[in-house]
């Protein structure tokens, strides 16, 4: 589709502005089970979303056939616009003054054929089974790769494009000892196929799985707790919406009106870093064409800013923070490489300072057991008992309950082991003064 010609025809047909958002996505999924190929699926799709202003109304049209004629597109947009009854004022963003440059490692996926990727999975399954005799099954062994590109052009002169890609290994193991069975899960994500570390993911998932065998509960009381990095990231993700300008408009965030106020321990800083060099995804601009930049949302415990797209920024008479990203057909607000900043000490040194406490490595029920408005949570948990500065034994059948904002204010130490997940949310391991644990 000739977008320049489409925009010219639109302006000549009475449209005041038109924008094209082109999204390309290519994905490969391969999985095996018990030494046999279970899935080998590749998909490729280009989707074009067009929005245009006609007689003051914004109309939208989504296409998967990029060969559609301009006349059909413009007539559809006109019909959509004239059917609207809203009094809302619409505009299309003309573009930021300048955009940051982001650098990616080259994509090597096509240099490795599918047979090589299947062979890698076969070796992973065999290797995991051979690490420990107690491992009975590898129910999940999968390879994913994804290549995505976005281009935005509009009649106001905006022309931007970006690309991201990643390869991922996802594994699960099941171990059994006596009458107890446990499972462990691990994911590894890299920019290049050649950087995937088969031995590391095998050893990690096997260690996770057998470490939890014969786990037991503990006495109910308050314990000093270290929430491990991946788990802390999961908990943080459950509360990320409180930092959104959309939540502020709806008045469903406790942070409304608290800019420049202390909301957490001085040890806590929260960063939104769309340009982070070592992240899986980097974003020089958001889905509205606004230039992205790294920012502190919380700085040493002090809340600095909500995240905004163009609509929420206009509501609060401020500037977009470059956090307008598509959520289905609409543009919502979300963080990109949104994480709690790491400290300078190791997780092991945090453990060494605890007389009796817990290392929490897994939380269940994060969708139902948290209230992002009040901050309250009550979650099934598992992990390890710490005694005299050492990991003692696995623990399960416990519930960790508290309030997220109280938790942030009771942080005693922050480790250096930042884990940033593929969904762009992350945290290091964090030591909390005390949390109520329900067990035996």
Task: Write structural notes for this entry.
This protein has two domains: 109-149 and 156-211, PmbA/TldD fold (2-Layer Sandwich), CATH 3.30.2290; 215-440, no CATH class. The chain is globular and about 75 Å long. It has helices spanning 3-12, 70-82, 114-131, 198-211, 229-238, 245-250, 310-315, 347-352, 404-409, and strands at residues 15-33, 36-54, 57-63, 135-154, 159-177, 180-190, 221-227, 270-272, 295-299, 302-303, 324-327, 330-333, 338-340, 356-364, 376-387, 390-403, 411-414, 419-420, 425-427, 430-438. It contains nine helices and 20 strands. Helix content is 20%, strand content 40%. It has 440 residues and is of the alpha+beta class. It has a six-stranded antiparallel β-sheet. The chain has a six-stranded mixed β-sheet with strand order 10-9-8-13-19-18, with helices on one face.
């Amino acid at each position: 589709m000739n977008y320049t010609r489409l925009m010219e025809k639109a302006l000549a047909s009475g449209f005041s502005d038109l924008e094209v958002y082109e999204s390309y996505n290519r994905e490969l999924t391969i999985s095996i089970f018990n030494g046999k190929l279970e899935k080998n699926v590749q998909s490729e799709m280009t989707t074009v979303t067009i929005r245009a202003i006609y007689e003051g109304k914004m109309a939208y049209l989504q296409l998967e056939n990029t060969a559609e004629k301009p006349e059909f597109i413009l007539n559809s947009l006109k019909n959509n616009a004239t059917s609207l009854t809203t009094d809302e004022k619409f505009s299309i963003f003309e573009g930021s003054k300048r955009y940051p440059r982001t650098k990616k490692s080259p994509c090597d996926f096509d240099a490795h054929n599918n047979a090589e990727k299947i062979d890698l999975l076969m070796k992973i399954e065999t290797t995991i089974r051979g690490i420990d005799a107690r491992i009975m099954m590898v129910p999940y062994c999968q390879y994913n790769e994804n290549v995505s590109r976005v281009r935005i052009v509009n009649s106001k002169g905006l022309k931007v494009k970006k690309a991201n890609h990643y390869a991922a290994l996802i594994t699960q193991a099941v171990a059994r000892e006596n009458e107890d069975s446990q499972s462990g899960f691990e994911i590894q994500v890299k920019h290049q196929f050649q950087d995937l570390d088969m031995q590391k993911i095998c050893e990690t998932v096997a260690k996770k799985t057998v470490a939890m065998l014969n786990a037991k509960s503990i006495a109910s009381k308050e314990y000093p707790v270290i929430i491990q990095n991946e788990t802390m990231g999961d908990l943080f993700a459950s509360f990320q919406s409180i930092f959104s300008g959309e939540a502020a408009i709806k008045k469903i965030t406790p942070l409304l009106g608290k800019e420049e106020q202390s909301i957490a321990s001085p040890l806590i800083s929260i960063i939104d870093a769309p340009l982070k060099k070592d992240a899986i995804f980097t974003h020089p601009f958001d889905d509205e064409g606004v230039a992205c930049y790294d920012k502190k949302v919380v700085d040493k415990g002090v809340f600095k800013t909500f995240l905004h797209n163009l609509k929420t920024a206009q509501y609060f008479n401020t500037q977009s923070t470059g956090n307008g990203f598509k959520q289905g057909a609409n543009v919502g607000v979300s963080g990109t490489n949104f994480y709690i900043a790491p400290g300078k000490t190791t997780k092991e040194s945090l453990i060494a300072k605890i007389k009796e406490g817990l290392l929490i490595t897994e939380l269940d029920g994060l969708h139902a057991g948290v209230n992002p408005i009040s901050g309250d949570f009550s979650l099934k948990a598992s992990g390890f008992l710490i005694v005299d500065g050492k990991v003692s034994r696995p623990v399960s059948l416990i519930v960790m309950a508290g309030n997220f904002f109280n938790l942030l204010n009771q942080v005693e130490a922050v480790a250096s082991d930042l884990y940033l997940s593929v969904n762009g949310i992350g945290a290091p391991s964090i030591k909390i003064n005390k949390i109520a644990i329900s067990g035996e």
